[in-house]
Amino acid sequence: MPINKNKNVPDTLDLAGRAGIALNAMIGVADEDKGYIPFFSGFFASDPAWMSHGNWDYGSSHGRLVDSMTLVRAMTGTEEGREIENHYKENLLSFFRKDGLSYRYNNFSEEFVKSCDAEFEDSASMIDQRAVLLGLTTWFIDTEEEAIKHRADQHVAALKRIARKERTSWYYPASEYTEHGWPSFDAVVTRLCPDPCAMWGRQVNPLIRYHQITGNQDALELCENFVSNIVYRSGAFGEDGSWNAGLGYRNGHFHTRMGTIASLARYAEFTHDAFLMNWVKRCYDWGLSKCTSFGWTPGDLEDQGYEHETCTLVDAIGTAITLAKNGYPEYWGKAERFLRNQLTEAQLLDTSWIKQSDTKENDILQEKTYYKVADRLRGAFAGYSAPNDFVYSGLKGRGHIMDVQVCCVASGARGLYNGWNNIVTEERGRVSVNMLLNKASKWVDVYSYLPHEGKVELTAKTDMKELCIRIPEYVPYGAVTVKRSTGGEEKSINARQLPWVKNCFIKLQDVRQDEEIEVQFPVIMRKTIETAVDDVYETNWAGDNVISISPSGVYYPLYKDIKLLDKVPKRKVPLYMGSTKDFD
Q1: Is residue 301 within 8 Å of 387, Cβ to Cβ?
Q2: Which GO terms describe its biological process (predicted)?
Q3: CB 459: neighbour CB atoms within 10 A?
Q4: Strands (DSSP E) found in 18-105
Q5: Residue 428 and residue 102: Cα distance in Å, rounded?
Q6: pTM assigned to the model
Q7: Using CA atoms, how far apart are residues 444 and 431, in angstroms rounded to an integer?
C-alpha cells in the first residue's frame, strides 16, 4: 500500500509503530525446541528472567498469535517473523481432531496431576475454541484459502453439534469436551453449567465475525442462542447491568465479562438490535465504574481484583468503539484515553532493567527457558499490571504472579489494530476523524501533536462533502480554531462559527483534495483521584494523557517522567496507510 510522502510525522503516539514492536514479542515466545509451541508466561523478578509453558499453549495461544501477527502486517507491511508465523499456523491446524474441535495436550508434571486427584485427558477447552476461530477467520480474510474456510466451517459445525439446545437458549454443560463426549453425565442431565461468559459468551464475537465474512448460518444460529442465554438465562449480569460476583461465575472475572460484552455489542450492531445495544451499554458502564478513567481494569471482583489483564482492556476498547459507532459518540473519548494510557503505557519498551542469560545451559528442555528473555519479550504487554506498575507486587490479592502472558501480548496488538482501524472512518460520504492519533487513510492523513501541543494537522487526499473531526470533551467550544488552506488561500474559523455533529464533532464542508487543515485548542491540565479496588491514586493529566501518578510504582513504574515538550520532534519515517482489507 502507498505511504504518505508529503510531510514528516510528529513523533507522538503511533499505534502502527507500537504494533511493529509488539511483533518482536510474538516471535520471541516461540520455543524452537518444542516444535515452535509458544511459551505462555514470562517472569522478570528473578535472575535471570525466564519463560515457561502452560496449558494455554495450544488453541488459545496459537489462535491469538495467528490473528494478531496478521493484523501487525496489515498495519505495518513488515515481513519479519513470517517463518515463525507459518509454524504457528501449522501447529494450530495440528490440534484439530476428527470431531472438528481443537484439543489441548498435557503440559503438567505427574506430581501436579496426582495432586489434583484427577486423571488428565486431552480435551477441547471451550475457552480455546474462541481463539481458534478468531485465528482461522483472520487467516482466511488475509489469504482467502478455501482449505482454511473449510476447516473453520467444520469447527463451527462441531460447536453447534455439541451445544446443549433448549427452547430459548443454548449452552455448554462443561468447560471441556472430550473425544467420547462431555466428561460428566451428571453435568449434562442436571445442567450444572460452567461460567457462561468464559465458555460461550466470548465465542459470540468470532462467530458473528465469521458469519459476516462467510455467511455461515451455523455461526449465526449459535450467536442467536448464546446471546439469548447470556441476556435472559445465565444470571451473569443483573437487570441494572451489575456483574455476578459469585464463585461459580469466576468472581465476576473481568476478562471474560468484558469479552462477552464486546461480543454482544458486535452482535447487536450486526442485527440492529437497539434493545441489546442499550443492555450492553448498561453492563459496560457498570464494569467501567470499577475501573480507572485511564483504562486500568480489575482482574475480578475478589482476590484477583488487583491484577489488570491487557486482554480485558482490549475488549473494553472494542466495546467503546462499537458503542461510539452506534449512537453513543461520547465513547470515542474513552477509547482514545484507554489507547493513549494503560494499553500503550503497559507495553514493555525498555528492557534494560531485566536480567537475562545469554545461554541455554540452565534451560529445562521443552518446559522453561532463561535464554535472552528480555530481548525476546520486548514489545510485550503487561499480564497483571497495577495502575502505576507493570506488575502488581503488593501484599493484597495474589501478589506478583507473572509479568507477561501470551494472551495479553497478542490481545494488545489486536487492541492497537482496533484503535488504528477506527481513527478515520467513512459512512455515506461523511468522513470522520474519531480519535486524534497519527493515521494515514485513503481520505485524509492525520498528524497529531498531542499531548505536547493541542494541534492536529490534516491533509485531504480526496474531495469530501463532509469532514467531521472529534474535539476532546475537555475543550470548550470557543477554544477551538480551524485553519483551512487550499489553492494558496488560508481561512481561519472559530469553532463557534462551525456546525457541530453529535455534540463532539466539528463539521467542515466541501473539503478539497490537497487541502491542508489545522485544528488547534488548549491542552487542559487537570487532576483526578482514581480508585482501583481499595487503592487510591492521584493522577495528573495533560488533556487525555496521564503524565504522572502518585504513589509511584516500585517494580517497573508506569507513567513516570513523562515530559511535555515545547517543540514536538518530527520523524522522517512516513505513515503507512496499511492493508485495504478490514480485519476488525
Answers
A1: no
A2: carbohydrate metabolic process
A3: 17
A4: 30-31, 37-38, 41-43, 50-52
A5: 41
A6: 0.96
A7: 9
Output the pLDDT for position 440: 97
Indicate whether 574 pLDDT > 70.
Answer: yes
Query: In angstroms, rounded to a whole number, what is the distance separating the alpha carbons of residues 233 and 253?
Result: 18
Q: Where are the domains of the chain?
A: 95-234
Cell numbers standing for residue 69:
501477527
User: Residue 198 and residue 311: Cα distance in Å, rounded?
Assistant: 13
Strands in 132-212 per DSSP E: 164-165, 170-171, 176-177
Phi, then psi, of 425 in degrees rounded to 5: -130, 165
Determine the pLDDT at residue 111: 87
Interstrand relation of 516-520 and 481-486 (parallel, antiparallel or unpaired): antiparallel
The sign of the dihedral angle between the CA atoms of 71, 436, 473, 499 is negative
- According to DSSP, residue 563 is labeled P
What is the Cα–Cα distance from 280 to 350, expressed in whole angstroms? 37
Q: What is the pLDDT of residues 62-112, one digit of tens each?
A: 999 999 999 999 999 999 999 999 999 999 999 999 999 999 998 888 888
* Mean pLDDT of the 139-168 span: 97
Please state, for a pLDDT cut of 90, what percent of the chain lies above it.
Answer: 90
Q: How far apart are CA 404 and CA 120, in angstroms?
A: 26
- 341: closest CA among 378, 316, 322, 360? 316
Task: Check if the beta carbon of residue 131 is closer than 8 Å to that of residue 411.
Answer: no
Record the cell numbers describing residue 120, joined without a space: 488428565
Of 360, 358, 393, 356, residue with least CA distance to 377: 356
- Please return the burial class of 230, using the count of CB atoms within 10 Å of its CB with bins 0-12, 13-18 and 19+: buried
Cell numbers that stand for 387 in this block: 495502575
Where in 371-515 does DSSP place strands (E)?
404-405, 424-427, 430-433, 439-440, 444-448, 455-460, 464-470, 481-486, 489-494, 500-501, 505-511
| Cell, residue 552 | 509511584
Contacts of 290 (CB under 8 A, 6+ apart): 254, 297, 298, 301
If pLDDT is split at 50, 70 and 90, which confidence band does 3 have?
A: very low
User: What cell numbers appear for 401 in the block?
Assistant: 504472579
Helices 204-214 and 254-271, packing angle to 10 deg: 30
Residue 101 · residue 124 · CB < 8 Å: yes
